[in-house]
Amino acid sequence: MRLFVIYTVDGITNGAVYAAVALALVMIWRATRIINYAQGAMAMFTTYIALIVIRHGAPYWLGFVIALAAGLVIGAATERILVRPVESRPPLNAVILSLGVLILLEAIAPMLFGGQTQSFPTPVSNIDLVAGGTTLDFSPFDLFTVGAVLVAMLLLFLVFQRTTLGLRMRAAAFNPEIARILGIRVGRMLTLGWGLAALLGALAGMLAAPSVYLYPSNMDEVLVFGFTGAIIGGLESPVGAVAGAVGVGLALSYVSGYIGSDLAPLGGFVILIVVLMLRPQGLFSFGTQRQV
Amino acid sequence: MNTVLRNSTLLRHGVFFLGLAALLLVLTSFVFDPYTNYNVTEVAIYAICTAGLTVLTGINGQVSLGHGALMMIGAYTTSVLLTWHPDLPLILMLLASMATTGIAGAIVGIAGARLRGPYLAGATLALAVALPQVPSHFASVFGGNQGLNVPTPAPPAFLGGDFSPEQWLAWITLAAAVITFFVLANLVRGATGRRFRMVRDNEVAARLSGIDVARTQVLAYMISAACAGLAGSLFAYWVTVTSPSGFTLNLSLSLLTAIVIGGLGSLAGAVIGSFILVYLPVWTGGFASSLNLSSNVANNVPLAIYGIVLIVAILVFPRGIAGGIGSIARGATRIIRSSRGPTALPAAPESPSQ
Amino acid sequence: MLEISDLTVAYGGVVALENVSLSVPEGSITAVLGANGAGKTTLVRTISGLVKPRHGSVMLGTQQLIGRSPEAIARLGVGHVPEGHGIVSELTVDENLRLGGLWRRDRADQRVAIEEAYELFPPLRVRRSVHASNLSGGERQMLSIGRAMVARPTALLLDEPSLGLAGGLLAQIMQRLATLVTERKLSVLLIEQNARSALSVADQAVVLSLGKVELRDSAERLAGDDALRHAYLGF
To answer: How far is CA C146 from CA A185, B151, C120, C143, in A?
Structure first.
């Protein structure tokens, strides 16, 4: 029972990180019908930037803010410069392009930051809390992780649902042509959408790095598990993406705890296949299936 | 009439590939130095796998981000069989690897036939990440992270005592590649290829004309996986050790990017892509080490250049390098023809390697 | 005043519009009639910048519209009610209306404009927080016209508003539109296959056939002349 609680807490904490990535993927998918395979690599890059800032003596929070800002810039620049020309082309072009960005970022990172594995600081303690003599099975950093993702999701929800900017972005994503004839600058909205998504990815990087450490390809798995969660959730629904990603986090944690940590990714794959066999468009998708 | 034509295609392909085999035999025996042979072997291994991937993605329209995992199944089939029965002939190893990987491909294909676009991409991506973890868990069979050693196949005695095993492997691999391309070229030209393309272009129309779409997709996956299995088996001999680190996510991504950069849907594109995959690091690596850079920089220059090549190729040659060459060739033909008079557009020049 | 001159549009090698010229004076409705494939929708899509013409000019007052992006053209005062309503069905009625003038700086007037849209089409008010996907065909059309009006356009392009609407409701919407045109001094280009309904509100009419202007006349004359009607409009 005790183990089950530990695995569950772990699963939820990791799931929160995957949820941030899943949400970023869903935002970009809904707006541009593109899966950003470079999402993980971008998060790796921004986390390295934070590490450099912190290593130079700046407080954690400055690094945190700079990482998120860097995510915003990298995401927006990627859309504006690289993705825009292929948006109207067959989908495989965008797939290859984002793989190119992934490969490029993972090659540049060791040039700039060194290739060896680095440890990464936490803003609050990473040691399990003790209350009244018994050890609780979560640390302040676990709470911070879950809390930060929840706050980010709440902020995004407010921006999208309660502001005119959010209304513009939603209109641009749902129906770009109609948005344009209503005077909305759709291109800017897409750029901003990519930026916000990469900011969310940068947050995931900051939250994942203390436990998975930091090296050039370390966010690949985070991307794959976030993507798995987003697919299970149906790719169209932010709520589905979060639910799917937390589900993936829990499943990986149980497989890893009860069977063996090597098999965790296989567990994720099996769950993905089982869900897709039952519902080929994921759990929260109600729209018509879209072709490649 | 129809049979004659089909026979003549077969005949044309047969002549072309026999000629190609003879040329490769001469090149690997008398022209190339051992290092070139080593690289050409690698190109041939990737070409076998990317040719299969071309059939799947280019001809049948199914994306796979997990072909590295399928290659891994082929490699481990050979390596495990070799640890159990070291004396089995090489041809059996190749066929066994094709069989196991083909079966695995059929399973992935059955699951994948219901999936489209990013759903299929995501499932295959998850496979690419998940499968390399399996050998570490079942270390007693698969040798864990250290992997399994694979002896280089010994050349037969009649070739003489000083015939190098590396050259023998180059011959085997190139022969396998030529046969694979011959079979796939005929398949792509024939009724099966037509069915594959119909499913790719318009599933509804394909279904209406009586094609079993799911079955066609599973068949494409199986054929493609069998190629990956063959490539994986040869890869095991070429690397001489089969371990999970040989089949990273990067391998899967490289294979898919290679067929797109080469020119999606053409078997020639698969060769061009494989060539780039092998020789870009060789050339850029040489360039980088000549600059006296730190090892962190120099080691990653090839990868960075590959990333840039991918991005630029997608932005500049949306139809891949083979497509770019093809349209330049067609443009040139058109200019030559039109200067002679008739203005009707000539059909694309058909080469058997398409 | 919306003035189109010498407009030619081609898709690949296929010419969709050939040297089309027409003008829509302020406070009047010009109906563009013609069969399917005559180029009617191409005409409005070119005016609002969604299709690039081969040559020609579209002037709104003193502004040249050709060469500008759709979003810039909307901001110059062209309202476009696209074929098939073009509402964003994932958004609520109120959100759809707000989209109409999101780019305008005058926030206070924006609220007034939305209020006016609700007054113009009262059925929308009761359904304001409903997702637009749940609206009936008539409500969608009202929403689409209302949304275009929120931006306070000087020119309005209506593409087949009669599509899928019952006769009574259509007449009602057309009547509201006719009032708006005189009140606001709008230049309206009304694309219709349903010539009878269009001619009942329009001031002048143009018949397009295979991308060319086949006939232009006052709506009254065209509606009254049986021979012309039979020849060009088939009723």
So the answer is: 21, 77, 8, 5
Residues spanned by the domain of C187: 2-233
Dihedral through CA A241, CA A247, CA A248, CA A250, nearest 10?
Answer: 150
ipTM of model: 0.91
pLDDT band at C224 (very low <50, low <70, confident <90, very high): confident
Structurally, chain A folds into a number of domains equal to 1
| Contact present, B259 and B269 (Cβ < 8 Å) | yes
Do C228 and C199 contact (CB within 8 A), yes or no? no
Q: Give the count of domains, chain C.
A: 1
b/e C120-143 (16+ beta carbons within 10 angstroms → b): bbeebeebeeeebeebeebbbbbb
Domain encompassing residue A107: 23-216
CATH of the domain at C122: 3.40.50.300
Residue A109 lies in a domain: yes
Report pLDDT for A290.
Answer: 38
Q: Give residues 89 to 128 of B whose Cβ lies within 8 Å of A.
A: 111, 114-123, 125-127
Question: How close is the nearest chain A Cα to the Cα of C154, in Å?
Answer: 14
Q: What is the pLDDT of residues A187-197, one digit of tens each?
A: 999 999 999 99
Annotate B222-272 with DSSP letters as a single string. Answer: HHHHHHHHHHHHHHHHHHSEE-GGGS-HHHHHHHHHHHHHHHTT-HHHHHH
Which two structure tokens, joined as six digits, stand for C119? Answer: 């007054």
Question: For helices B2-26 and B165-189, what crossing angle results, to 10°?
Answer: 160
Nearest to A218 by CA among B248, B139, B253, B136: B248
Residue B148 to residue B41: CA distance in whole angstroms:
21
Instruction: Name the closest residue on chain A to residue C69, using Cα atoms.
Output: A180
Tell me the count of A-C CB pairs closer than 8 A. Answer: 67
CB contact (8 A) between residue C102 and residue A184: yes
SS3 C213: strand
pLDDT digits (tens, 9 = 90+) for A86-126: 888 888 889 999 999 999 999 999 999 988 899 999 999 88
How far apart, in whole angstroms, are the C-alpha atoms of residue A30 and residue A235?
8
Q: Is A291 contained in some domain?
A: no
Whether residue A263 lies inside any domain: the answer is: no
Does the beta carbon of C82 lie under 8 angstroms from any beta carbon of chain A? yes
The first and second tokens of residue C63, run together, are 């502004």
What's the Cα-to-Cα distance from B186 to each of A195, B8, B51, B98, C158, rounded to whole Å? 47, 11, 13, 19, 55
Output the six-digit token pair for C34: 């013609």
Sign of CA dihedral B281, B257, A193, A25: negative
**Cα torsion for B255, B260, B263, B267, to the nearest 10°?**
30
Q: Is C192 helix (H, G, I), strand (E, B) or coil?
A: strand
Q: Is residue A28 one of the residues assigned to a domain?
A: yes
